[in-house]
Amino acid sequence: MRKLILTLFIALVTFAGVVQAQEVPLFSCFYECKPQQPRIYAAATSLWREVTTLMLVNQNNSYVFADLLFFDGNEKPIAHTATFTLLSPFDLDEINVCETLNLGKISSIPFAGMVQVRLLGVQDNEDQRVTVWIKNLLGSFTKGVTEPFSGTVTGIAKARCDRMMGPYIEGDVQSVFPILIENTDDGEQDD
Known about the structure:
It contains two helices and twelve strands, in the order H-E-E-E-E-E-E-E-H-E-E-E-E-E. It is mostly beta strands and 191 residues long. The protein has a single domain (23-176), classed as Sandwich (Hypothetical Protein Tm1070, Chain: A). Residues 4-21 have low confidence and may be disordered.
């Protein structure tokens, strides 16, 4: 059922040409992917010292779709999600930003950057009932292990992402699949 809804939505968006430079509800958040050795690029070490997760919460009675665009610290788009993240009614999804970029084979994962979350399928102020937070974790995390709490966490900070209306920037960037963590992937379950 969930796959059918997602497939129909993607077909509608693609066929109708909705994915254009139009004003859409957006969230803007920072992220950090710091390697254990600060002078070495993130791709050159097997441990993270600092990672960020992105928490997406849908408090609507209907489905909402999220599309993510990742930027480096110089505002250059580096990746976007290959599939929409489906937020079912009253759903929470948590995405490991650093492992999404790592497993997506992004060549130079920036130490810090911004992620833009575009909401699709929202109507009549439904975007007001979607919240996005980042969770920044400090500690020691093995690269390739998607669950940060499998590592050693020494500090946590959380911040709410900024909500805005604006054009969604599209560019020719690499596609990545979002890595959902902490058992927030709904999988193939029907609602």
